[in-house]
Specification:
This protein has 24 helices and no strands. It is mostly helical.
Length: 530
């Protein structure tokens, strides 16, 4: 077991930790790992707290709390698949240290088990922050005593430990399929992007139809449960948490058996699979063809676009905020009557412009495109450095690519939201100007942290995009700036009406100017030092 835990430690570090090129900086490793844990915990708490409360408000009066755990179990399962399926491709089958680990005196099954266990721990983290808060909400809002006994929490913890096993087994199988397609098809990224696009469409469809679904639950909760017979394991989990130990044991077996089969089944062919995927990805088909000429800036922008749209992990982690932003604008136009009615119910003091600004700022904060761009160059950064292009040009092209994507999405969403909520022309203008200033500050700051905390020796792009310190800072520091702007809006409103929008805009002007100036002055030297 000593070998297994040593391998597991390496795999967990690959999943959750990353460092800079400087050696011995354990604090930076810790901050990076904590940032990844905080992000997963925040998403789980947000989803569970919001939707569990909405569901309990409808289901508690009819004593159908079991549906809360069924739906939250589905959320944990689907969310875990989204987080780890593409990570499996990089961590389990595409790690750069596979050759070294496979040459050690350990069996391929043990190596496979350690890698899969690291995936399990990430799924366990998300499942914990989805199911446990749902249990707390049920205990607080129930009308039938759910959650008021110690055995309830024991059964809930058993479900929390078991569900990630099933999630991990499905993630590994899907990740193996993704790795096979990526090695087999020359444009494997296209297929991965299509899969993620379909997933996002399903998520947005669920969100837009949530109110109707909740009304249907209130009218026929028992019928809804019967219609979910296709998800029998989750039904067993829900009934088991509510008190049926037989169903709970059946659910645990349904999770453990696939996990064991995947570990031992793929473990027997792990060496052959890793070798085959590496051999296919190393192949190059050279074709002679005419090359089009273009300017330096156009060529560098095309290079950035090819990496962004050709790397599903990069696109769907760094571009989801922009998708959410545009989707929010379109949804606001579609549901404008409901939104206006809601604002009218809140009274004249409801700051619609502030709410729109916070939504836009939160979505734009997740657009961390520039922050990981330097690290994604990896060991080939020297090729870009040897190109007949100045360091300043390289830096601003990378920051400008983020602006090239974020600015049009910001304008579209801002116009749609302002129109749907009937925000006045001057407020809409100030709102859009503030969002554009935020974009400039975010891109420049992301580029700075990418240069300050590079990770050029990462085993795969997953570590850079999901867990690197640069990406963590590139998301959470802008979120903190959005919170500071909201606080200034509130403080300004206490002073004078004109100060409410003026103070946040002034802060964004300062941030944009300072970040751009520091990047212009220090950026080239920081790039030369890499």
């Amino acid at each position: 077991m000593k070998k297994f835990f040593a391998l597991l430690k390496v795999s967990v570090k690959s999943m959750l930790l990353s460092s800079t090129n400087a050696r011995g900086r354990s604090k930076k490793k810790a901050v990076s790992g904590v940032g990844a844990v905080v992000l997963i915990a925040f998403l789980g708490l947000y989803l569970s707290g919001l939707y569990s409360s909405m569901l309990m408000g409808v289901l508690a009066p009819v004593h159908m709390e079991v549906l809360v755990f069924i739906f939250m179990g589905m959320a944990a399962l689907v969310g875990g698949l989204m987080f780890t399926t593409f990570a499996v491709k990089g961590v389990v089958f595409g790690g750069k240290d596979n050759d070294l680990l496979l040459s050690m005196p350990v069996s391929s099954t043990m190596l496979m088990a350690s890698r899969v266990s690291a995936i399990y721990l990430e799924n366990l983290l998300f499942a914990f922050f989805v199911l446990v808060p749902a249990g707390a909400v049920c205990a607080f809002m129930t009308q039938s005593g759910v959650g008021h006994s110690l055995l309830f929490w024991v059964r809930l913890i058993v479900a929390v430990l078991a569900l990630p096993l099933l999630d991990t087994a499905l993630s590994v199988l899907l990740g193996a399929l993704v790795a096979f397609l990526s090695a087999k098809v020359s444009r494997g990224a296209l297929g991965q992007n299509i899969v993620m696009a379909l997933y996002m469409v399903a998520v947005f469809w669920f969100v837009f139809h949530l109110n109707g679904m909740i009304e249907g639950l209130a009218a026929n909760a028992a019928g809804v449960k019967q219609s979910l017979s296709w998800a029998a394991p989750l039904l067993w989990m829900g009934d088991g948490i509510m008190g049926d130990w037989g169903f709970l044991l059946a659910f645990a077996a349904c999770c453990i058996v696939p996990f064991v089969l995947v570990v031992f089944g793929l473990g027997r062919v792990y060496r052959q699979a890793v070798t085959a995927f590496a051999a296919r990805s190393a192949r190059n088909d050279y074709r002679l063809s005419a090359q089009s000429a273009s300017g330096q800036n156009k060529a560098l922008l095309a290079k950035e676009a090819k990496r962004f749209f050709g790397t599903p992990m990069y696109m769907w982690n760094s571009g989801t905020g922009l998708i959410m932003l545009v989707a929010a604008g379109v949804a606001a136009l579609v549901m404008k009557d409901d939104l206006r009615e809601f604002i009218a119910m809140m009274g004249g003091d409801f700051p619609a412009a502030l709410a729109v600004a916070v939504v836009m700022g939160f979505s734009l904060s997740m657009c961390a495109i520039a922050a990981p761009s330097i690290s994604l160059e990896g060991k080939y950064l020297w090729i870009l450095r040897e190109a007949p292009v100045g360091e300043g040009t390289l830096i601003w092209i990378k920051a400008g690519f983020q602006l090239l994507l974020s600015v049009p999405c910001t304008i579209i969403a801002g116009v749609c939201l302002a129109s749907a909520l009937q925000i006045s022309l001057w407020e809409g203008t100030v709102l859009l100007a503030a969002a554009l200033l935020f974009n400039v500050a975010h891109a420049a700051f992301g580029m700075l942290v990418g240069l300050a905390f590079p990770k050029l020796d990462a085993v795969n792009e997953t570590v850079i995009i999901k867990q690197s310190l640069a990406t963590t800072l590139g998301i959470f520091v802008p979120m903190a700036a959005v919170g500071a702007c909201a606080l200034l809006y509130w403080l300004g409103g206490m002073l004078a009406p004109w100060a409410a929008p003026a103070l946040p805009v002034a802060l964004l002007v300062v941030l944009a100017v300072v970040c751009a100036a520091v990047l212009a002055r220090r950026g080239p030297a920081m790039l030369q030092a890499l």
